[in-house]
Amino acid sequence: MASVAFIGLGNMGGGMAANLAKAGNDVRAFDLSAEALDRAKKAGCLPAESAIAAITGAEAVITMLPAGKHVESVYQDSLFDHAAPGAILIDCSTIDVATARRVAEAAAARGLVAVDAPVSGGIAAANAGTLTFMVGGSKAGFERAEPFLTDMGKTVIHAGPAGAGQAAKVCNNMLLGATMIATCEAFALAEKLGLDLQNFYDIASVSSGQSWSMTSYCPVPGVGPETPADRDYQGGFAAPLMLKDLKLAMEAAADVHAQTPMGARASELYQRFVDGEGAGLDFSGIIRMLREEGEQTG
Ligand code: NAD
User: What is the rounded distance in angstroms from the CA atom of residue 105 to the CA atom of residue 182?
Assistant: First the structure.
């Protein structure tokens, strides 16, 4: 039985910590929220009184926090001075590439091994233990992290050195944001041109316009597999999280002077959507904004 500290028991971390406990690990869990700690206890984790109490003596320390500033403060304030020598530090949060690299360097300077291991897959995959992990760090760090990640997911891929996991995550999600908008606008145009949307799906899903956004996550209700569109765009991958990831991609692109015009446009459109009704909707709900704006322009 391995001893694992898990910090950040929110929508994603709650299910992930539960799966680590289910796999037989001794999970010492910490969150600032008492409700989250209570849920973790019911799921078989041992609630800790502080991050330091969770971390002390753990063989692996896993963080699943909102953003880079939370990760950096937990690492600086609690982790660096209290992690056991030889512990593997695994950050599964989605954060900016620069912070991920800085944290890994600071860990190495203290003789600790850290990897960034952001996930693909939402709350349902976190609960079901079917996440995909993309891991940045040394080969040795990857090999030490892998068994713990396997307890929480179905696919674990080494993306490259420190920060490479976050880089792969933001590139993937930038592609997803742009293809979702392109899929939505294709359906909105097809509708205006008088096409039957199921018929258009039958054509495009086996033609060159096919994408995951179309065949696995169709933004139109009643077409394709069941998706958040069939639940009035509730659940799924929240639009504000897509916007967060697009902003991270834009920051990363600016740092390395990459040209990302479609990513930039997707970021602007998701900002508008989130400023309006999108704040509480799945990211595929952006089709509503495109349809409504189409109506307003005649
Ligand atoms: P969340 O807000 O539900 O959970 C974050 C948790 O961290 C909260 O419970 C909060 O109390 C806790 N926390 C914050 N600061 C803390 C600290 N200093 N010490 C201890 N606990 C602290 O967020 P989430 O949806 O679980 O997302 C977590 C991460 O996973 C984010 O980086 C997000 O971008 C990423 N992600 C989310 C999804 C998703 O569908 N929700 C999918 C993929 C990746």
Answer: 39
Q: Which of 116, 143, 160 is the last residue of a domain?
A: 160
* Probe residue for ligand 1, chosen from 55, 64, 152, 246 as the CB with the greatest number of ligand atoms within 8 Å: 64
Is 178 in the same domain as 268? yes
Indicate whether 145 and 186 sit together in one domain. Answer: no
Do 127 and 179 share a domain, yes or no?
no
Show the domain range for 145: 3-160
Are 30 and 116 part of one and the same domain? yes
Give how many domains the chain has, as a whole number. 2
**Axis-axis angle for helices 239-256, 164-192 (nearest 10):** 120
The structure's pTM equals 0.94
CATH number of the domain enclosing 134: 3.40.50.720
Test site for ligand 1: of 7, 16, 28, 32, most ligand atoms within 8 A of the Cβ? 32
Across the chain, mean pLDDT equals 96
pLDDT in tens, 25-72: 999 999 999 999 999 999 999 999 999 999 999 999 999 999 999 999
Q: Which atom, in ligand 1's list, is nearest to the CA of 8?
A: 7
| Protein residue with its CA nearest to atom 8 in ligand 1 | 10
Q: What is the pLDDT of residues 236-291, one digit of tens each?
A: 899 999 999 999 999 999 999 999 999 999 999 999 999 999 999 999 999 999 99
Closest atom, ligand 1, to C-alpha of 33: 11
Task: Give strand ranges (E) for 92-202.
Answer: 113-116, 119-120, 131-136, 153-160
Mean pLDDT (whole number) for 158-181 = 98
Query: For position 298, what pLDDT does the model report?
Result: 63
Closest C-alpha to 288, from 189, 242, 219: 219
Cβ neighbourhood burial of 298 (10 Å; 0-12, 13-18, 19+): exposed
